């Protein structure tokens, strides 16, 4: 699936939804390592962007996005609409990241 065919909106300009295939999702549960916690604690002393945690979040989002797209591919979707991310702290240091949307089949809209 083309990443450009994934949107947080419920429409794709220039396309018409012909079939809705249901909810697709990607899910991961992440924890910070002892070394990551130590490096993060050091970075917090200096303030600003805590890059070790930023990298962890970006990696989790990328992983769940790829899982969601794979799920949509398995349903023969060619687009995902209404995509969102959600994160929940399950316990201290353990976070669930969810990426979900609606798998659809779209065709070019003949009307401009």
3D structure, described in words:
This protein has 112 residues and is α+β, with helices and mostly antiparallel strands. The chain has a domain at 3-31 and 60-108: 2-Layer Sandwich (Translation Initiation Factor IF3), CATH 3.30.110. 33% of the residues lie in helices and 40% in strands. The chain is built from 2 helices and 3 strands. The protein has helices at residues 34-46, 51-74; strands at 15-31, 79-91, 94-108. The protein is elongated and about 55 Å long. The model has no long low-confidence stretch (mean pLDDT 85).
Describe the SSE topology.
Elements: E1 15-31, H1 34-46, H2 51-74, E2 79-91, E3 94-108
Antiparallel strand pairs: 1-3, 2-3
Beta-sheet strand percentage?
A: 35-45%
* Neighbour order of strands in the largest sheet: 1-3-2
Give the overall average pLDDT. 85
Cα distance, first to last residue?
24 Å
What is the highest CATH level, the class of the domain at 3-31 and 60-108?
A: Alpha Beta
Number of strands: 3
Instruction: Give the helix proportion (percent range).
Output: 25-40%
Largest sheet: 3 strands, antiparallel
CATH topology of the domain at 3-31 and 60-108: Translation Initiation Factor IF3
Low-confidence stretches: none
- The CATH superfamily label of the domain at 3-31 and 60-108 reads Hypothetical protein apc22750. Chain B
What structural class do you assign from the helix and strand content? alpha+beta
Shape designation: elongated
Features:
Translation Initiation Factor IF3; three-stranded antiparallel beta sheet; 3 strands; 2 helices; alpha+beta; 112 residues
């Amino acid at each position: 699936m083309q990443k450009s065919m994934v949107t947080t909106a419920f429409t794709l300009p220039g396309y018409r939804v012909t079939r809705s295939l249901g909810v697709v999702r990607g899910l991961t549960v992440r924890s910070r390592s002892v070394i990551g916690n130590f490096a993060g604690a050091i970075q917090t002393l200096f303030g600003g962007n805590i890059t070790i945690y930023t990298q962890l979040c970006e990696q989790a989002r990328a992983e769940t996005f790829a899982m969601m797209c794979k799920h949509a591919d398995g349903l023969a979707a060619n687009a995902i609409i209404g995509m969102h991310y959600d994160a929940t702290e399950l316990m201290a240091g353990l976070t669930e990241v969810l990426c979900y949307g609606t798998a659809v089949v779209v065709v070019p809209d003949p009307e401009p």
